[in-house]
């Protein structure tokens, strides 16, 4: 990385800075500067399209983790300015890695849950880098049950490297908290929209992502393990993360092709961090469109469709012939 820009963004950023400098000097009387400005703008547009149309899976991983990428609260300030945050799991404490509460989006009452990362060291420590403890998932469960009680659609924003694997989290039942959420979401009698806005890491992501509709932003990722973790296990070498990313097929377009997700939300050219407000508008439109469609379904049909959706995932073979006898028999 170069500061808060990625390596492959650096040539584009340098060119954009030159353009900004020239804009301050351009006047109708200085025709040569105006012409140079137009030439550089055309060049920058070509460069942006060339770079972002050829991204590798590893480059998309970097974009999903971009230090400038909008987080859950950034989007809520645009699409849900009246968001009322509710805290605590009523059992142990409050986990700032997950935010949850009530809001309205285009006058539709919504219960919203999302992972939240931090922008600087202090905030990242407070938010635990978006890695939730069991109390975070139990807080989310409490809000899921509230959604069912109120009859409100549930919207979740997924952005985590994974659930926190610390000793204290395990002692407080991390795996049980995640498993409980999976069961509860499968049977929640209200529409559920899950959106992967950055990283979707393992069970920590899935614990709030069992949805009737699962969406991903164009440059987000969703996988059972991080590329670094996969490389460390398969090759005993975390530096082979780029190779692992290719094998994992963790991008939005990969997962749409594999029928793991339902839709890819396009990002502004260069990524969501280039125009957060435009990205928020696209997310809002997708939420409203899908929620309105799901609200028209009877509760039982909603549940049946959700169950069928997840049962259809994956490829497997069924043995239809006689089962062979164990070696040494018959």
UniProtKB/TrEMBL annotation:
GO terms for molecular function: acetyl-CoA carboxylase activity; ATP binding; carboxyl- or carbamoyltransferase activity. It catalyses: N(6)-carboxybiotinyl-L-lysyl-[protein] + acetyl-CoA = N(6)-biotinyl-L-lysyl-[protein] + malonyl-CoA. It is an enzyme of class 2 (transferase). GO terms for biological process: fatty acid biosynthetic process; malonyl-CoA biosynthetic process. The gene is accA. Belongs to the AccA family. GO terms for cellular component: acetyl-CoA carboxylase complex. Its EC number is 2.1.3.15. This is Acetyl-coenzyme A carboxylase carboxyl transferase subunit alpha. Its main location: cytoplasm. Pfam families: ACCA. Signal peptide: none annotated.
């Amino acid at each position: 990385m170069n500061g808060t820009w990625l390596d492959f963004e650096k040539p584009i950023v340098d060119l954009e800075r030159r353009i900004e400098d020239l804009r301050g000097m351009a006047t109708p009387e200085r025709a040569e500067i105006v012409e140079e400005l137009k030439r550089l703008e055309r060049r920058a547009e070509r460069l942006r399209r060339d770079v972002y149309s050829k991204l590798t899976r590893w480059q998309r991983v970097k974009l999903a983790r971009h230090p400038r990428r909008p987080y859950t609260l950034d989007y809520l300030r645009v699409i849900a300015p009246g968001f009322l945050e509710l805290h605590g799991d009523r059992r142990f404490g409050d986990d700032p890695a997950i935010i949850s509460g009530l809001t309205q989006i285009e006058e539709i009452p919504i219960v919203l849950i999302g992972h939240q990362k931090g922008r600087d060291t202090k905030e990242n420590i407070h938010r635990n880098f978006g890695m939730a403890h069991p109390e975070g998932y139990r807080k989310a469960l409490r809000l899921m049950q509230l959604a069912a009680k109120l009859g409100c659609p549930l919207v979740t924003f997924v952005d985590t490297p994974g659930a926190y694997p610390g000793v204290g989290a395990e002692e407080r039942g991390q795996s049980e908290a995640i498993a409980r959420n999976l069961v509860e979401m499968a049977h929640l009698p209200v529409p559920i929209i899950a959106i992967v806005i950055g990283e979707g890491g393992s069970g920590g992501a899935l614990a709030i992502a069992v949805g009737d509709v699962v969406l991903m932003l164009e440059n987000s990722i969703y996988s059972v393990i991080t590329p670094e973790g996969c490389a460390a296990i398969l090759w005993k070498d975390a530096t082979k993360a780029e190779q692992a990313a290719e094998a994992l097929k963790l991008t939005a377009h990969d997962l749409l092709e594999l029928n793991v997700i339902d839709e890819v939300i396009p990002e502004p050219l260069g990524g969501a961090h280039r125009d957060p407000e435009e990205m928020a508008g696209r997310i809002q439109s997708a939420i409203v469109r899908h929620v309105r469609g799901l609200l028209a379904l009877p509760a039982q049909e909603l549940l049946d469709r959700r169950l069928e959706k997840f049962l259809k995932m994956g490829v497997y073979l069924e043995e239809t012939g006689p089962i062979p006898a164990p070696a040494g028999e018959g």
